[in-house]
Amino acid sequence: QVQLVESGGGLVQPGGSLRLSCAASGSIFRINAMAWYRQAPGKERELVAVITSGGSTNYAEAVKGRFAISRDNSKNTVFLQMNSLKPEDTAVYYCNANVDYSGMIYWGKGTLVTVSS
Fold first, then answer.
1. pLDDT in tens, 83-111
2. What is the rounded distance in angstroms from the CA atom of residue 101 to the CA atom of residue 80?
3. Sheet with 18-26: strands ordered across
């Protein structure tokens, strides 16, 4: 079994920064890719950023230039550095991982980010 646990969410003012972390644990041979999704009130869950095992990244248009995804393979951890935060970034942020040769997908329970003055 694989577990994903997010941390780092909280309340921040517009223009501020937060860094989210997601640690994977359990029986893992390889994490093929890790991603961050978010779901704002009244909206569908959307992909924010993804990073492959080799370090290639892709971002949603709304966060390009402001957010950066990275990973520490030795610790099975993925990060999301969020800068220049806007009120519209307010959402529950979910960690996602594609694991092993089966490509099985796991989700964290989410961490709330609130951007407000």
1. 999 999 999 999 999 998 888 999 999 99
2. 25
3. 2-7, 18-26, 77-82, 67-72
